[in-house]
Amino acid sequence: MSDTPQETPDRHSVLASAGFGAVMLVAAVLVIVDAVRLPETAEAVGPAAVPLPVGVLLGVVGAALLVQARTQFATAGASEAQPRAGLRVLGMVVALVAFALLLPLLGYVVTSAALFAASATLLGAPSLLRSVAYGWALAAIVFLVFDRLIGLSLPSGPWGF
Questions:
Q1: Where are the domains of the chain?
Q2: Whole-prediction pTM
Q3: Mean pLDDT, residues 22-38
């Protein structure tokens, strides 16, 4: 056993985790239903090869969040006020809207890297430069896998990526 006491979560965080888990479960059902409805092809890797496992993973993580929230709720402490939480949520909404609007203009890699960096910064990442580097690398890898290996074209933007 460790000598360090376990930190008890506050009720607000537990409820937020439960809500996010529920949203993930709904998204999982929608993704799985859409993946199953995709037409079959003669290709070795069909169009449902990625959405189906992603939907299953969404469901597993969502269910795990709900179970974790259920077990933590009874021991959760009082919620502390977070003065800038509303601004962070607003920032995330602005980042998502900007992503949707700029995706056709700037392409997948640039807009996804910017969304990753903005999200990480809003959620408290210590280094903006590191967030941009991780976002760029992750977006580039996803672009290469989907666009080049699988053949599902993603918006390439004026630079071709």
A1: 1-80, 84-161
A2: 0.60
A3: 91
